[in-house]
């Protein structure tokens, strides 16, 4: 579920980040985390290219195939897609099927719900509006939303980097109960904001990181206010059209369909039964029934996603996600000054070695991107601009029965097969960060 995936993903982002520490230490990074296209001489460019290539290994397709097979089978996935792009070659694995009991494999153009990767769309729209002078990073939220408690002391930047302290509405019992009782309920963004603001804040603004979907829904409403158009049109005009993301969309709140070709989504978990720290895994008796094959997952494909709105309602494909995350982290969506502002905003979420989070973008080791989850779907996207590495993974059964995010876990396991460095040491670093958090 999106509620606990917010916790799981921040945690797993940190897990992936820790697994990439060895890799990132051996790579050559540009000063600002962009692609380094700075007009340097041919000699220095050649040296840089050589150094960056040495941070990577040749992709071993047979070993990668085995890893994907083992991980997908372990988690009872129905289908998974892996896309890796590096200067040393590409790897694609379209494993399993798009529906339980089916035989049609997914493709790089199969559409899935991408959950909180949508946050990077909302965050980038706001960053573009900052670039255009429509608002400022230090503007108080109260300037646009007078209803936000303590809004005079919460900035736009703190909404973007999850340091506003505002309560995450997806952690409320009210929302999770409603989602269990009526998967077709249509939620308005104002209802979602009201749920979040009706609860006390986690902390004073700017004092600590706390992942909250309330932040991003507020940003979506502010974006609509400033651009004078619906959020779906903002995304289409600013991103989907210019980047040629023909398989990407932001559906209307009443639209529960996914355009063809698509994958069904599946989940064993309810919302309330896995709500709360330590309850991510299903009860032992249910886990045993799943292993015995006497319990089948629920189809989530047409659950109404409006309860996530600008924080998680998007639909996309592996190919489009790869194009998007390259543009996001590579600096193609903002001018140099604004991209620098964004990349400089990324700070550790939970101390040294943890994942980083900034203005609508996450950092996991040398990869910048995000992780997203909706019931039945989990997607990881990351791009390393220093080494020109793209990694996209999705799975269509999420969360796993034991409360994990399958795409995030597989992304973590793929790290030693992409970056140079002792795989055992890298894996050990990952395991030390077993369950830490950001969808």
Topology:
Elements (H helix, E strand, L loop, with lengths): L1 H18 L1 H6 L15 H12 L7 H14 L4 E8 L2 E8 L15 E4 L2 H14 L24 H5 L12 H9 L7 H9 L15 H15 L3 H13 L22 E2 L16 H9 L5 E2 L14 E3 L1 H13 L5 H9 L2 E2 L7 E2 L4 E3 L2 E8 L2 E8 L4 E7 L10 H9 L8 H9 L4 E2 L2
Antiparallel strand pairs: 1-2, 1-12, 3-6, 4-5, 7-8, 8-9, 9-10, 10-11, 11-12
Helix pairs in contact: 1-14, 1-15, 4-14, 5-9, 8-9
Structure, explained:
- There is one protein chain.
- This protein has 439 residues and is of the alpha+beta class.
- The strands form three sheets. It has an eight-stranded antiparallel beta sheet with strand order 2-1-12-11-10-9-8-7, with helices on both faces. The chain has a two-stranded antiparallel ribbon with strand order 3-6.
- Helix content is 37%, strand content 13%.
| Mean pLDDT across every amino acid position | 87
The helix fraction, in percent, is 25-40%
Annotation, overall tally of beta strands: 13
Radius of gyration: 20 Å
Class by SSE composition = alpha+beta
In order across it, which strands form the biggest sheet? 2-1-12-11-10-9-8-7
Tell me the overall shape: globular
Number of helices: 15
* Poorly predicted ranges: 5-15, 21-52, 422-439
Following the backbone from N to C, one meets helices and strands in this order, namely HHHHEEEHHHHHHEHEEHHEEEEEEHHE
Main pleated sheet: 8 strands, antiparallel
Q: N- to C-terminal separation?
A: 11 Å
**Strand percentage, roughly?**
5-15%
Kindly list the characteristics that best describe this protein.
alpha+beta, 15 helices, 13 strands
